[in-house]
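Why does residue order matter? Because the sequence determines the fold. Keep that principle in mind as you read this record.
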Amino acid sequence: MDDLHADIKELQENIQMLLKEFADVKKQNEHLKQQVTQTKKELTEKDKSIELLQQKFVSNRISELYDTEDKKILKAKIDVYLKDIEKCLSLLNT
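Structure:
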């Protein structure tokens, strides 16, 4: 009978230890999830920054490639394209 009580007590202690370990792992898991969320947020912000810098770089390269007269011609062509797009959109909306 004493062996049975000793076995039960040892089993209860093991269960308590496992429950404590489970709680610790669960807490650590939550902490890691928060870190993942934060890291994803930072990564998204850095991706946006990279995209913005790439756009600025392309813009600067275009500025370097064209002289003032070429820029005026390019701007005029873009304006024509934009007007055509606006016409198409207005036709689609009617």
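The chain has a mean pLDDT of 90.
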